[in-house]
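HUMAN:
Just now I want nothing more than another pair of eyes on a protein record. I would be glad if you read both lines and explained how they fit together. I have put the entry right below:
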Amino acid sequence: MTIGERISVERGRAGLTQAQLASAVGLDRSALAKIETDARRVTALELVAIARELGQRMDWFVAPEPEAVIAHRQRNELGSLAIDRALERVARDVGVVQAMDPGLARDVPRRTPPASVQQAEEMAVETRRLLGLSSDAPVYNLSDAVAPLGLLAFSLPLGDGADAGYVALEHGGVAVINGGLRTGRRRLALAHELGHHLTSDDYVTDWRIALDQEASRESRLDRFGRALLLPKADLTGRWPSWTERTDEDLRDAAVRAGSHYRVDMATLADRLRELGLASPTEVAFVRSVSTRKADIVEKNLHVASELDPISLPRAYERAVLGLYRGERISESRALDLLQGAYMSEELPVLRPTHEHELWSFTT
């Protein structure tokens, strides 16, 4: 899109009329109308004022979009959804950093989307192998685990709406997880987005994943996500040992399983159902269980916390910090790329430039 078209789109997202935006930035409405239709050029100062009023960064109006964003816009104009805006920003930022640090870019081991439940299970087994996991190993620190497969996971506070979304890049892809979800739900959302990443989707936003059982493709990727987090062979072997304890009941078994695999009770219940490890009544009961503080203490459970917002991929953080330490980007640019996860005083201390080094910049 042209700069004018982007201003028009962002104004629509903000719910402002041309008259309202023009008044806020000190322009005539007719002047803004000409800018939006590219009949008049916008000055740098005017663009700064417009960007500030719309709560958007300058580079959104002038930098090229990732191809997946362009394709998504052509199919269905981006709306005002927080997830769409977050995905586009993250995709742009990662593209900028990859251009300056090619080591952040990774190719993706693409595969055909699962056409059946069995294929979803097989895809999970294959993915665990790619991640270097044994068949009985829980997947911890999922964000770090998926990075070698080219997926960079960001957890941002997005309020109500989509659980997560995915954008494919020229090299690799990015997932944005709604940080407002509970830990187990965030992990399932990322496992689901990994499925999109591996099956060559270009731009996807998932609305409350697993709730729409009519969406068969999404349902199979949910199955893939559960199979990845709760491997069939391991859960089938462990579940009886938890339920057969004479000093504990079904609730205790669910609490132990949820803690071990770091999943929420809805995910555990669905997995027990699809593996035939619990009756419909037991599945409904497990879904209703909540872990209490007393459970954590009495059972000596590990309290897991992954993808807390704001959470950035470690590889991406290192790349941005490396660019800043090498003085290839400014402090303000580094803080911007780090999505508000860092304060100025948390950045690396730069090495002072000695007097004799100044001559290398002037001769």
Remarks:
- The chain has 19 helices and four strands.
- The CA atoms of residues 136 and 235 lie 8 Å apart.
- The radius of gyration is 24 Å.
